[in-house]
Each structure stands twice: as C-alpha cells, then as structure tokens.
Amino acid sequence: MVRAVAGVADNSFDGLRRPCQGGAMAESGTVDWFAAGDEGERGRLYAYRIRGRDRGGVLLWIGGVGNARDRVLTLPGAAGHRTVPVFRTAGQARRYADRRGWPLAHPEADTLELARVQHWLADPARRRVPAGAVLDAWNFFEDLARGLPAASGPRQTAVHDGAYEKLFGDACDIWTPEERGAVQELLTAGVELWNSCLVSVKPRASAVRITGSVGR
After folding, report:
1. Are 130 and 122 in contact (CB under 8 A)?
2. In sequence order, which residues have a C-beta less than 8 Å from that of residue 9 and are 6 or more positions away?
3. Would you say which domain of life the source belongs to (predicted)?
4. Nearest-5° Cα angle at 104, 19 to 199
5. pLDDT above 90 covers what percent of the chain?
6. What confidence score (pLDDT) does residue 168 get?
7. Which of 128, 127, 186 is nearest to 9 (CA)?
8. Is the sign of the CA dihedral 110, 82, 114, 187 positive or negative?
C-alpha cells in the first residue's frame, strides 16, 4: 500500500468484531454503481495485494486527500451490505479502474503479507513480532472497516495508541502485556473481518454513478 503512516492509531475506529455478511467468494455479474466514497471526497486510487492463509487477492484502496480518510473501496451489495471488489491480478484491477476513467496512481500493487501476521497470531508467546507486516495489517484493517460501515468491534483506546506508537517506531519488543494483548485482539478481529466479508470477484459495471473524485 502506498501510504505514509504517522502519528497514532485512529481512536474513532470502532473496531472489527462483527464481520460483514457472507463469507464466501461471490462471483458477481453486473453491478450498477461504483462508489468512490462520500459526496465530494477526493483521493488517489491504488491496487493492493493481500496474501493471507485463507483468502487473498488484489483490491482497490483509496488514499484520502485533505481531510478524507484512507479506505478500501467497496460496492453496494444485496440487502444494503457492501462488498469488496477483488481481482486475481493487479492488471485486472488496473483495467477495471481504467474503464471508469480512474487511472491508478501507481501501476503496480504493494503487498500485505497477511500470512506472516496469522503465523505470529497462532503462537504469539513464542514467535517474534513481524513488525512491518503487523503495521501494514493494522492500517489495512482500519481502512477495510471504513469501507464496511456494518463492521464493529473492539474500540481503540489509549492502550492501542501506545502500542501503535511503539510499533511504528519498531519498538514492539517493549510492548506492555496489556498492549500486546490489545494488538492481538484487534488483529485477530481484523483477520476475521477480512476472511468473512462479502467480496465481488472481477466485478463489471454497465452503469456507473460516481459519488466522489478519485485519481484527480
């Protein structure tokens, strides 16, 4: 993911405990709406590859401009739920965006090695924290939850702020037991959200209604 991370974690993020509906990879037919965000929101579009143990693929990520927050791009689905468009390659994601007049800000996809985070979570007491992958995963789960308004879970507190600051400074070896536990809980919930949220594989759009400005 092409992004600069500074400061502390976003306290307004409600967390990730309740996954969005679905869980299976849903092959979409034609979607009639391509949502870029709230009215007037501006951002730059990037392809982002997720490599997880249970689910992987390339999705589209909106880097917010000004006061707009970063978030994963989602589409409206059945029964009011939102879905995450997922592609097998960065080229497919790029062509999907190009057809809508939204060229990617960078032609290649950055990669989140989520499997490394999952490996650590399976035995955190004995394994070394993969700091870079954990930082990327934390940011990704926040951005994913912003694209899925139905997601909810553990609210981030001052404990999370302290853990994030140490992680960002590559000092997670001095996490307190409380900070370590908070990070493990948040990441476990984030993995659950990613593995269970409804996705659209290689979506197509015949009629496009733009609700924001991406890549401009």
Report:
1. no
2. 138, 142, 156, 160, 161, 164
3. Bacteria
4. 25
5. 57
6. 96
7. 186
8. positive
Residue 35 DSSP code? -
Cβ contact 199:74 at 8 Å: no
Taking the C-alpha atoms of residue 86 and residue 8, their distance in angstroms, rounded to an integer, is 29
Please determine, for residue 119, whether its predicted confidence score (pLDDT) is greater than 90: yes
Angstrom distance (rounded) from CA 163 to CA 175: 6
Distances in whole angstroms, Cα of residue 4 to Cα of each of 63, 72, 135, 168? 10, 16, 12, 11
Residues 15 and 190: beta-carbon distance below 8 Å? no
Q: Which residue is it, tokens 């302290």?
A: 162
Query: If we measure between CA atoms, which residue out of 188, 193, 153, 214 comes closest to residue 23?
Result: 193
Relative to beta strand 56-64, strand 199-201 is: unpaired
Helices marked H in the chain — which ranges? 90-98, 114-122, 131-147, 158-168, 177-196
Residue 42: per-residue pLDDT: 60
Residues contacting 53, CB < 8 A, separation 6+:
114, 115, 118, 119
The one-letter code for the residue type at 46 is Y
Q: What is the pLDDT of residues 6-52, one digit of tens each?
A: 333 443 344 433 333 333 333 332 222 223 343 345 688 999 999 99
